[in-house]
Amino acid sequence: MGIIFIVMATIIAIRNLYLYSTELSVGFYLDNYTNNSVTNEKFVIAMLVGGGILLYWGKFRSRKSSNYDDARMPS
């Protein structure tokens, strides 16, 4: 799940970079990361952080805490 968040955030960031750099400038694109308004670029940052948290949680969770029996994980 975390990988999907990170991949989608990367796709959105590249798409926005392409759209802004063709019509406006790269400086305008980078300014959207630091201005005070809520922009799509800030959601990209939130998705990257959320994906990282999901990856971290999935890697270090205990096998005893899962509520299902997964055939791929030997017990």
Explain what the structure shows.
With 75 residues, this protein is mostly helical. It has one domain. Helix content is 69%, strand content 0%. It is built from three helices and no strands. It has helices spanning 2-23, 26-34, 40-60. Helix 1 packs antiparallel against helix 3. The chain is elongated, with a radius of gyration of 18 Å. The mean pLDDT is 77.
Number of helices: 3
| Helix content class | 55-70%
Return the string of H and E elements: HHH
Number of folding domains?
A: 1
How widely separated are the two ends?
23 Å
Which class of secondary structure composition applies to the elements? mainly alpha
Low-confidence stretches: none
Task: Please tell me the overall pLDDT.
Answer: 77
Indicate the radius of gyration in whole angstroms.
18 Å
Number of strands: 0
Proportion of beta-strand residues: under 5%
Reported for the largest beta sheet, the result is: none
Principal-axes geometry comes out as elongated
